[in-house]
């Protein structure tokens, strides 16, 4: 009986000492198009408005600069 117990103990120790499995490869997750569209849209809306206003502000600055240069 002690031989069987010793054999099982040795088998358990050998299994516990085996190499760990390598971690899974770093693959990007599958895209989920519908998951966060509301959040993305809420974040992008002010950015898009600011980009649209940027051109208007630049044009006004250019016009003001031209008026100042014309007065000198």
> Number of DSSP strands?
0
Strand content: under 5%
Task: Kindly report the average pLDDT value.
Answer: 82
The number of helices is 2
The outline comes out as: rod-shaped
- Major pleated sheet: none
The H/E string reads HH
Can you describe what's shown?
The chain is 69% helix and 0% strand. It has two helices and no strands. The protein has helices at residues 2-16, 37-71. The termini are far apart. The chain is mainly α and 72 residues long. It has a domain at 43-72. The protein is rod-shaped.
Write the layout of secondary structure elements.
Blueprint: H1 2-16, H2 37-71
In short:
By secondary structure, this protein is mainly α.
Question: What descriptors fit this protein?
Answer:
72 residues, single chain, mainly alpha, 2 helices
């Amino acid at each position: 009986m002690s031989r069987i117990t010793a054999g099982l103990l040795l088998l358990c120790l050998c299994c516990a000492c085996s190499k760990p499995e390598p971690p899974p490869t770093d693959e990007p997750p599958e895209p989920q198009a519908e998951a966060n569209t509301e959040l993305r849209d809420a974040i992008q809306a002010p950015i898009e408005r600011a980009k649209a206003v940027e051109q208007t502000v630049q044009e006004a600055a250019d016009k003001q600069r031209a008026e100042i240069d014309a007065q000198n």
